[in-house]
């Protein structure tokens, strides 16, 4: 497995480079916004990838609450960490896109606000996992993750349910997009999914090793305390 990872990393890097070329060169220029619209090919795939990872975190958290399986808990924390990375990209690229188009960096729009709240809840989840040392920490964190996941549908459907400054969807719900733009968008999403998978794989292996180390230290501590 260790030999496969570098190969997959190189292939993913090549795929990301090709997707970047598609976004910056091949994709047609949007008539209204011009070249700044090309942020779209990173903003949207990052959001989709984050949503997918948070969905994995939600499922893993529910399963952990039922079965208390450490491997499932590792999946939960790993998907949350990688999901926060991509959600951070969303929150960075959004203002970069908004400033030249709207004339402002940020507005307390329902889509933007709910996305920020989503990011804050998962950051709080990770802080809990990092700094709490109690035996019930994974259980409490799983409950927090289930609660945080409830914000994902609100983020996704907000522009469909409310009048917002955020642009309406161009895919589905009566929206339209140039087929060439859609192709580039999907290629970038596939590239981001490959990157997310590599990050997930690497971080999951580290989490499993950390669990094994913690278990070994716990057993050693019990042996030292037991009467001889």
What does this structure look like?
With 228 residues, this protein is mainly alpha-helical. The longest helix has 47 residues, at 179-225. The protein is built from 7 helices and no strands. The chain has a domain at 43-162 and 177-213. The chain starts with a helix and ends with a helix. It has helices spanning 4-26, 40-67, 70-102, 110-131, 137-149, 151-161, 179-225. It is globular, with a radius of gyration of 21 Å. Helix 1 runs antiparallel to helix 7 (179-225), helix 2 (40-67) runs antiparallel to helix 3 and helix 3 packs antiparallel against helix 4.
Helix content percent band: over 70%
Give the SSE order as H and E letters: HHHHHHH
The total beta strand count reads 0
- Overall residue-averaged pLDDT value: 88
- Summing up helix and strand content along with how strands pair, one would put the structural category as mainly alpha
Strand proportion, as a percent range, falls in under 5%
Radius of gyration: 21 Å
Shape: globular
Number of helices in the DSSP assignment: 7
The poorly predicted ranges are none
The end-to-end distance, rounded to whole angstroms, is 42 Å
Biggest sheet descriptor? none
